[in-house]
Amino acid sequence: MTSPPVTGPAVAPRHRGGPGPARFRPRRTPPAGTARRARRGVLAHWRQYLAISPFFLIFGAFSFFPVFYSLYLAFQRWDGMGTMQFVGLDQFRFLLDDPVFWMSIRNTLAIWVLSTVPTLFGALVLATLLHSVRRFKGFYRIALYIPNVTSIVAVAIFFGAVFSNNFGLVNAILGTVGIPPVPWLSNPWLIKLVIALLMTWMWTGYNMIIYLAGLQAIPTQIYEAAKLDGAGPVRTFFQITVPIMRPIILFTVVISTINGLQSFSEPQVLFGSNAANPNLGGPGQAGLTTLLYFYQSAFVNNDYGYGAAIVWAFFVLILVLVVVNWRLVQRGRKS
């Protein structure tokens, strides 16, 4: 007796070495109305875009547009009132032969070196000491960070009174031990030193907080192992802390380079520089920084085209120094 045939869907025969049965492939093209729904989804959040639009409008009007407009002014001769006159690269040619510009570059670089090196090293040392403190750690953090949030004008006035040639507190203390008054604000190198001390006092606490955050991420087992191997505090600092903190040190070097080269308010307030006192930067213009020279050219001499050329040339210098510092620190990290 034969069994009845099995009924069911027909199965396509599979050929040896050939493809199998045809399968259903979904359509890859989006269905109609998808783009319309996407546009409707963007428009559905118009309230959120409207809420954040003031920031972008203000940024575009007062930051983005002035940057590119200053680049346009660098190729013009304009006093701020009359018609502009296109001069091409004449502003930059005159810049290369301007002795005051190169003097401001030298002053800026000297102040930057005198302030950045002690700032970063002192911040790292203070962060290491504060990391080992058990009590009143929050108080020390606030006390060391307060100078960074203090008004730079108030700090500059304070330093001007402390380092005054005739009635300064520093000279009064030196006089008690028989040392004659020091011309802090008239000697060319001492002027740079006072400005560097001002910047160091303001920015050490800021960098210390960054270093302290990095130190807190280092496992304590590393220091315990180093202590068991007989490493002292100095050796632990230079052979363990500094190599591990190298990426954070790189970040602070870049930020300090940008901030240190943009010194403007410190010499301006310290020496009472304004339109009525065109002798910017103190005696002999020893404290004349590049941004202060830009201020003199644009807003005192009303030469906005040359002022724009100064800041764009200075921007290129800052960019080059940042890249050089980055490569130096990265090379030390690879070695």
TrEMBL record:
Q: Which UniProt keywords apply?
A: Cell membrane, Membrane, Transmembrane, Transmembrane helix, Transport
Is-annotated flag, keyword Transmembrane helix? yes
Q: Write out the ranges of the annotated region (Disordered).
A: 1-36
Residue ranges spanning the membrane: these are 49-75, 109-130, 142-163, 189-215, 236-258, 304-326
Q: Which InterPro entries match?
A: ABC_transporter_permease, MetI-like, MetI-like_sf
Query: Per the annotation, which location comes first and is thus the protein's main one?
Result: membrane
Could you tell me the membrane topology recorded for this protein?
A: Multi-pass membrane protein
**Where located?**
Cell membrane
ABC transmembrane type-1 domain mapped to chain residues = 105-325
Similarity comment: family membership: Belongs to the binding-protein-dependent transport system permease family.
Protein name as it appears in the record: Cytochrome c biogenesis protein
Q: Which organism is it from?
A: Streptomyces djakartensis
Q: What is the lineage of its organism?
A: Bacteria, Bacillati, Actinomycetota, Actinomycetes, Kitasatosporales
